[in-house]
Amino acid sequence: MSMKALQKIDKFYVVFILSMVVMGIFLIYTFRSIFTSVTTSGDVETKVTEAELRIDREKLGNVLKSYNERKIVPLEIR
Q1: Is the whole-model pTM more than 0.85?
Q2: Residue 42 has pLDDT above 90, yes or no
């Protein structure tokens, strides 16, 4: 390129190209982080078995009963 051609380049294009390069780098970093997280989450082994999972059915039943028997206060709109 000749010097005249370089002088005719508008500042908009320089800023535009620099911003596109920065956004491209950010995009690559973002996708790399996302795919690393997906890979890591796929490698995690679940070690919870039915024997380790303890649900107290009596307490659960009491909570469900109290939830279903609660008094609902209607909203009065004036």
Answers
A1: no
A2: no
